[in-house]
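Q: Predict the bound structure with adenosine monophosphate.
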Amino acid sequence: MRIVFLGAPGSGKGTQAQRLMEDYGFPQISTGDLLRQAVADGTELGRRAQAAMDAGDLVSDDIVLGIIAERLARPDCGNGFILDGFPRNLPQANALQPVLEGIGQQLDAAVLLDVDTDVLMKRLTGRRTCSLTGKLLNIYYSEQSELDACTAQGGELIQRADDNEETIANRLDVYREQTEPLIDYYRSAGLLRTVDVDGDPDTVYAALKSALKLAN
Ligand code: AMP
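A: Predicted complex:
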């Protein structure tokens, strides 16, 4: 399947995309992860992206489109992919069309992870990534055994630089102003599927698979 994930920061796009990738093999393509890697590697692209990321603003469309076009052209995307965090605005959504046509693919669905914005601050400030496995965890919501499993193996629970309250507030504003219009964009295209994200990750995952008509 070729899927776009829509949803506010903290709605669980990364967590759910990781699960789909594990169970069905569609690669999760997270522009945020690819940009963070470029920053960590100290590449030219990373240097150009860093200031916007630190502020919680969007990185310029040309940078992100270059990353996406390059990533989608790789062979592992031939049977499908999950775009996690892209597109983030209407110009990116419009630019995605010719990229997909160029590789002979088209989107099957755009999934909106619909979340009550009141819970987002806690989800985002509590978010951590295990340095060993890359698994997304949360100090408020994950099982203590899962958190301990990471540290017991010598891993660290890493917090993203942009998961602080000030940057989060800006990221939520950017989402409302620039990304939310994509909900109508994909609804008009007949691709929108909405999944309620108020439950625990297992419940959300079951609803997601049902929305995508994926077999268990
Ligand atoms: P994320 O991990 O998706 O929350 O993205 C983290 C940060 O990376 C965002 O706050 C932006 O600065 C940048 N970013 C990720 N994806 C995009 C995109 N599609 N367009 C522009 N900036 C992006």
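A: The pocket of adenosine monophosphate is lined by residues 9, 31-32, 35, 52-53, 56-59, 64, 85-86, 88, 92, 162, 171 (CB under 6 Å).
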